[in-house]
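Researcher: Here's a chain I'd like modeled. Treat it as a single chain, no partners, no ligands.
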Amino acid sequence: MEEFLCYVEDFDRNPNTRPALPFLIGHEVFGVKFALACDFLKEIGFSNYSKPDTHLLDIFTGLGLSDRDPLSVFRAVTEMSVDVQETPYAVDKVFWLIGSGNLYNHARTFHTDKDEYVRMALSAWEEKRRAKYAPGGALLNASKRAGILAWFRGVGSLSCGSWSMGDHCPT
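Model: Modeled as a single isolated chain. Structure tokens:
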């Protein structure tokens, strides 16, 4: 097992080689494609991997942050994680929760609408971009990725297993 973990770490330590491993796994293991290989790596503890599933594909494409393909979304999640100083796993989890509404650790679900989220996030980002300044006078980060996630953090929060998002919060 240690040999396998060292092998993964060789790919994981460099953002440019990181996506090559899920492609290799997908090529070598029948029925496993890029997204499922990413999920496997993420779930065994490699937090630099995100799973570009249907929720992330829909949201990141809708926000204009990536093309609609798993590698493009994987890279966009990685770039956003750098912008917001979180792991790709954490960014993945936030957007997966927005897309799925599944609080699996609490055996609960809540209504969510990823299309509505995309519309609201783009609208809020556009308003801030036009103003050029965030509240308090600080220049906004030119990154759309960071702007979208910063807006989300202002509306909801995710920490230590708790979740809230206005009226969508489970009771």
